[in-house]
Input
Amino acid sequence: MKETSSSTAGETRHLNMDRTRVLILRPDNIGDVLLFTGALRHIRNLYPEAHITLAVQAHIVNLVELCPHIDACVPVDELTWRGKVEHKGFTVKPEMERAITIANKLWNFFYRPFDIVIYPVKSPQVPHLRIIDCLNGGKTFGMTGCNLNAPGKGYPETLKPSSLLKKQLDVSTSDPWVHELLITLDFLVFMGCEAISLDDIRPEFWLDDSEKNHLHGLQRNGRNVIGLFPGASHRERRWESHNYGELAKRLGQQQIYVIFGSSEDRELAKQAALFIKANCENAEILDFTGQSTLRTLVKTIMSCDLLISMDTSGLHMAVAAGVPAIGIVGGGHFGRFVPWGDPAKHIFLTNKTGCFHCNWQCIHDEAECITGVSPQEVAMAASKLLNYEWQQS
Output
């Protein structure tokens, strides 16, 4: 029986001393985790008798906790004493940090919670490496050779990936902007997985029948349901709100717009709705920002006829679910996370500039790779997808 998301690493150790204990450490963002979901079944095949724990950020647990290929899903904060203290709202002061870290490492030296740690992140980050350092895993798989997320002065001596990761896939000679799915494929082969291809690691979801769908029972009356995901992790990666009004004007009056996002996107959603109404007073607008768990978000997006999104978790969900989608994306990481999916269903629009692949160190006042995408372009792509022949089947 799978342990709940409240299981701690210590509880996992206590319950499973008779089995090899494997930790998959995926402490990055929702899109990164989602792109890795197709790999989980192959890790299970590699360790069929092991107890496998997947650690993700606390707000991502809901997305992956039903995965049948793992035994437990825990928040990353629960892996270290420092994380547990900070998770409870306390600040770890500098004079306390070293003492907590040393005590945690000593504890894990004698009571190692995991035999194998898998850290499938191409560009290691210092906070992640601190966790690995504390865990004292018997065997640690990871990647070296990509320094896009390295500190400006380099990794601290005690946290160098080349010494901390015992089993290393060197990616220094590969294209830094090759897609993450291809990197995942190489990493799985490096670990020992056999006879797998890109099609075998396509992202997937695990939902149950009780998942809420915000669009259940919606009266469409022949109208298209168009999802909008206007938010992004950073302001410069967003499309200006007035563009949604111009887009709606071009798509016509008879549409239903469903706005998604986190609670932090509510003001942005309100602005987009005002511009849409100003141009299409008959358009119906539903705002679900801040009202969804990740699984509910997936279920609701799957009921849309089209999703128009920035480079967000919502975009990755739509592509993974086969929902027609338009991604308005910039050049900071272009090629590494997008585009992917079926090009007949998924269109990615960007304004290619000479400063592409800046790793989001933008040299302009605004990200021209995104602001240069016009409502006319998006409207043309939307019309193409909404009228495509597979929509009629």
Remarks:
- Residues 3-16 have pLDDT under 50 and may be disordered.
